[in-house]
Amino acid sequence: MFSDRAKIFIKSGNGGDGHVSFRRELYVPAGGPDGGNGGRGGDIIFQVDEGLNTLTDFRYNRKFVAKSGEPGGKKRCSGKNAEDLVIKVPEGTVIKEFETGKVISDMSGENRREVILKGGRGGLGNMNFATATMQAPQYAQPGQPGQELWVQLELKVIADVGLVGFPNVGKSTLLSRVSNARPKIANYHFTTLNPHLGVVDLDEGAGFVMADIPGLIEGASEGIGLGHEFLQHIERTKVLIHVVDAASVEGRDPVEDIRIINEELAAYNPDLLKRPQVIAANKMDAMYEEMDAQGNITDPVGRLRAAFEPQGIPVFPISAVSGQGVKELLYAVYRILQTMDQTPVVFEKEFDTRLLGAGSNLPYTVEQAEDGVFVLEGPRIEKMLGYTNLDSEKGFLFFQKFLKDTGILDELEQAGIREGDTVRMYGHEFDYYKE
Ligand SMILES: Nc1nc2c(ncn2[C@@H]2O[C@H](COP(=O)(O)OP(=O)(O)OP(=O)(O)O)[C@@H](O)[C@H]2O)c(=O)[nH]1
Ligand SMILES: [Mg+2]
Q1: What is d(CA 224, CA 399) in angstroms, rounded to the nearest whole number?
Q2: Are residues 267 and 284 in the same domain?
Q3: Which range is least confidently modeled, 78-82, 136-140, 186-190?
Q4: Neighbours of 316 (CB within 10 A)
Q5: 209 and 200 Cβ atoms separated by less than 8 Å
Q6: 322 and 177 within one domain
Q7: How much of the chain is in helix, strand and coil states, percent to nearest 5?
Q8: How far is the CA of 277 from the centre of ligand 1 (A)?
Q9: What are the φ/ψ torsions at residue 313 (nearest 5 degrees)?
Q10: Structural domain count of the chain
Q11: Do residues 4 and 54 make contact, with C-beta atoms less than 8 angstroms apart?
């Protein structure tokens, strides 16, 4: 089973903790602090790999956790930085934050490699904390935790033109006829399960990239028949070619088929209908004159023209098998492309992972108790208290900085705290003073 979307968990490495130790030399009774710094945690990096063209690998491997930095050591030894974790994806992969669906990064075009989650910084060892008043600091900074996130990966191929239509109408046959691509062709539905790209060369260096999108069916926009995965591939294409079985080999009505596909496109993403469309009325070689029940000669091409040309959608009768009419179709598509913006469709960043807090971003609460004391609670605060030696001057400053950087001080202000009020957190009480 192939896959063009995947939900995965990523986490950058924790920073290594700083070390607490003291120099011990013969004849030196109380050596200075010599605890080294922790190493940096590994980053989570996404990188385009030309050899990949699906996201199938992510069906089996869904957790990507970078290693932690090593802790600092005695004698001022720094812990080693952890290696970064590089996740390889096919070109055209869009990384989204899972909860909100916001775009974190589009791995296409120039963007071949991007750090998505930064590893945590290593903590400073106690060698950094000696001051005139504190000559034997027992405090070393903990390593900063890594960041973690569930992300959705979606592959959206990069092509100028997309072939859309019901299964078995001849999309792959057309692509193989006009380009270097060799998709499988067979007389059954859903032969094609992932998109194929082909370069269409016209005369004098003119050309474009065409994508054979797997067959769509009614309900595709609700996910029926892997509809979402298939439809997401159309999002970057600029012109759509509706391939339709004009000979009604399977007894379907070509006019109705195009209406259904357009309804699915609109339901998936209304912007898709703004793209120019052309109709390839395929299988002309298999068409012969037929009468309908009223004795009129059926003329599918005429009916397609009557239905769609007033909407500005031209119809080209073709045979993907014999090549009849194909040239006219390709030049018409090329002319439309020439009138359009040539830059590839790239999805803008909407979610900046640098703004994610470290760790799991667990919430905290600020409340005023009956005795007027402001109470701060929450796993994040508890964790940070556990990390910090509040009896040391540096530790206390470190904790204050944490309260400020995380916006907790702002929140206390909003809750109405004033100079001299008391703040309580898990058994510790402080008086509040502005710096
Ligand atoms: N007579 C005739 N048969 C055609 C023509 N184009 C395609 N076919 C046949 O239609 C069948 C389906 O062709 P494909 O190209 O695999 O169709 P598809 O649209 O890619 O189908 P899916 O991948 O399942 O969505 C094959 O048996 C082709 O030989 C044509 O122009 N004339
Ligand atoms: Mg096909």
Answers
A1: 53
A2: yes
A3: 136-140
A4: 22
A5: yes
A6: yes
A7: 25, 25, 50
A8: 20
A9: -105, 105
A10: 3
A11: yes
CA distances from 241 to 32, 134, 210, 275 (A): 75, 75, 10, 10
Tokens representing 81 are 């930085």
> Which of 163, 166, 173, 233 to mutate for ligand 1's pocket (most ligand atoms within 8 Å of CB)?
173
Is 181 a pocket residue for ligand 1 (Cβ < 6 Å)?
no
CA pair distance 77, 122, nearest whole angstrom: 13
Q: Is 260 in the pocket of ligand 1 (CB under 6 A)?
A: no
81 with 188, same domain? no
177 and 293 in a single domain? The answer is yes
pTM above 0.85, yes or no: no
163 lines ligand 1 (CB under 6 A): no
Q: Has residue 348 been placed in a domain?
A: no
CATH code of 99's domain? 2.70.210.12
Show which of 106, 140, 155 is a domain's final residue: 155
Ligand with an atom nearest the CA of residue 183: 2
Say if ligand 1 is within 6 A of residue 133 CB. Answer: no
CB 332 within 8 A of CB 317: no
Identify whether 16 is part of a domain: yes
DSSP line for 29-46: SSPPB-PPPPPPPPPEEE
Domain match, 231 and 176 both: yes
Residue 387's CATH number: 3.30.300.350
Average pLDDT over residues 108-121: 94
Ligand 1 midpoint to CA 167 (Å): 8
191 and 205 assigned to the same domain:
yes
Instruction: Please tell me the number of the ligand nearest to residue 281's CA.
Output: 1
Give the position, in ligand 1's atom list, of the atom nearest the Cα of 214: 25
* pLDDT tens sequence across 190-249: 888 888 889 998 987 788 999 999 998 888 888 887 888 889 999 999 999 999 999 998
Range of the domain at 99: 1-155
- CA–CA distance, 60 with 334 (Å, rounded to integer): 41
> Does residue 176 have its Cβ closer than 6 Å to ligand 1?
no
Does 19 map to a domain? yes
H or E element at residue 140: none
Residue 374 to residue 430: CA distance in whole angstroms: 10
Q: Are residues 198 and 235 in the same domain?
A: yes
Q: Is residue 174 part of a domain?
A: yes
Beta bridge partners of 374: 368, 423
Helix boundaries (H) for 214-325: 227-232, 254-268, 300-308
Which of 124, 155, 186 is where one domain is finished? 155
Residue 193 Cα: closest atom of ligand 1: 23
Q: Are both 5 and 126 inside the same structural domain?
A: yes
